TrEMBL record:
Pfam family, one: AAA_lid_14
Organism encoding this protein: Hylemonella gracilis ATCC 19624
Name of this chain's protein: Sigma 54-dependent transcriptional activator
Any single GO BP term: regulation of DNA-templated transcription
Superkingdom of origin: Bacteria
Ranges for domain Sigma-54 factor interaction: 1-194
GO MF annotations, alphabetized: ATP binding; DNA binding
Keywords: ATP-binding, DNA-binding, Nucleotide-binding, Transcription, Transcription regulation
């Protein structure tokens, strides 16, 4: 988002914005990916390709996670940054491109350079102007504002009526550390949105997940959702009824639900309440 803002609020806004995750670049084809290639330059080169540099000409090439580039790729990038000159793989013609290069990294590139894991000359070449984006937990109020944006976006995407975060969810979002920053927040809101059947989005009530972030189930999506919602409803109703001494009207008010609708939930789990 920061890279897009720099591009679209600058003098190159009418040029192309080309983002690429460096971790997705194949090491042995890095020069072909960046600079393009001529037909027949290597085994799979059935057609000529202009490459990312040509695609971004006149605009911005955003290299995300640049720390994942191997040394061969770093050398190729450094050569281009020296004078903006490059050659397609398999071509003897030198070309020039007018491209602004933006890079991003979650790693400490200077430390990597000191440890010889990243070229020091490339580090100094790309660090002419550096911007540090603080962690989400250090940006007071941003997490809730972003969460509200995500809720609105998901509502449009899934064609649902306008939804909103509950006050309890706002408190949770403000207090959570969010070690995974914006991506973690977006995923948490997305899961909570999918589990919500009404207009109120509740965090952090999401299904238990494995290390990959996927629900611990072999069921299909619909069955897994039904099971997760049932588990959430039972725990939520039990907790509210305990807190209100069994007062359905008061519990419904705390849950921002119609008393009759909440009463149906209470009846649904009455056996658990009496256990």
């Amino acid at each position: 988002m920061a890279a897009r803002a720099i591009h679209y609020m600058g003098q190159r806004k009418d040029g192309p914005f080309v983002p690429i995750n460096c971790g997705a670049l194949t090491e042995h084809l890095i020069e072909s990916e960046l600079f393009g290639h001529e037909r027949g330059a290597f085994t799979d080169a059935k057609h000529s390709s202009g490459g990312l540099i040509q695609e971004a000409n006149g605009g911005t090439l955003f290299l995300d996670e640049i720390d994942s580039l191997g040394h061969k790729a770093q050398a190729a990038l450094l050569r281009f940054l020296q004078d903006g000159m490059y050659r397609r793989v398999g071509s003897g013609k030198i070309q020039q491109a007018n491209v602004r290069i933006l890079v991003a990294s979650n790693a400490n590139l200077l430390q990597m350079a000191e440890e010889k894991k990243f070229r020091k000359d490339l580090y100094f070449r790309i660090s002419v102007l550096s911007l540090r984006l603080p962690n989400l937990r250090d940006r007071t109020g941003d997490a809730v504002e972003l969460a509200e944006i995500f809720v609105s976006r998901f509502a449009r995407h899934y064609g649902r009526a306008k939804a909103k975060l509950t006050p309890e969810s706002v408190v949770y979002i403000n207090n959570h550390e969010w070690p995974g920053n914006v991506r973690e927040l977006e995923n948490a809101v997305h899961r909570a949105f999918l589990l919500s059947d009404g207009p109120h989005i509740v965090l952090p009530d999401v299904p238990e997940a494995d290390e990959a972030g996927l629900p611990r189930t072999t069921q299909g999506f619909r069955a897994a959702k039904v099971e997760a919602v049932k588990k959430f409803e039972r725990g939520y109703v039990l907790q509210l009824m305990n807190e209100t001494g069994g007062n359905i009207t008061k519990a419904a008010r705390l849950a921002h639900q119609d008393p009759s609708a909440f009463g149906k939930l209470v009846r649904k789990y009455r056996s658990d309440l009496n256990a």
